[in-house]
Amino acid sequence: MRFSLITTLLPLLALTADLTTATGPTKKQLANRSKKFSIGIVLYPGFEPLDVIGPFEIMQSLSAYYPMTISFIASKTGPISSRAPPHVMVPGQPPVDLSHLIAIDLYATHTFTTAPPLDILLIPGGMGGMVLVENNDTSIEQFITSRYNQLEYLLSVCTGSMSLARAGVLKRKRATTNKSFWPWVMQFGGKVKWVPTARWTQDGKIWTSSGVAAGMDMTYAFLSHVYGTEQLNSIMNAIEYAPHTDPSWDPFSVVWNVPGANQGGPIESCVKPAGL
Questions:
Q1: How far is C-alpha 214 from the geometric centre of its chain's CA atoms?
Q2: Domain 38-81+102-255, what fold?
């Protein structure tokens, strides 16, 4: 059904491709359009569903135009639940059992040892990150470190930036994270240039986003950087998502009273359909 929707929309998307970019695509973007990017998305028990599915939705639709492959990577292959195992949520309190929550399973196609060469790696956030820290599980950080030099781009959504910080790749780099979990993530961020009001950041090949839905905003900006917007804007309008396009402003930094946030910023941020 999903395939039928995409193929049905292809002729319409081609007719409505974005024509607003005055300078047109760069040489690098033109070259990227014919390169088959190998994308990896890490999974772990308790990943945040939209951190994964939001960016994937945009990537899947764009793969109708530009070649790419996808690998879902975890400590083991098979179904990985978005429900976090029992864990301590408040220091000094007993572990919280979340077995009453509904959840979705996504299938890990590769392990950290069998994953193919990657060009792009995305690390999602989620409550399961607390479990990894509690259990001193550094498998994701070890994977990031082992692949970092070969990656063209490293992305994190939400508290996924915690894993980047723990891996040491954010030292002296600008980054952001989920604003409601700001204090928790900060404990892992030695020498990181945390940006409290950012919706997303880019520093070299590293992109980090604020919480959950902000991953879709970052993905739009990231894919615009890689490919240009000719097909991408049409895709965003086809899925009827109006991306937040100001990386420097996240109104949720005010909602969650993040230290250093611009308290005078507009809470009602203006978003509009892509390309308009």
A1: 8
A2: Rossmann fold (3.40.50)
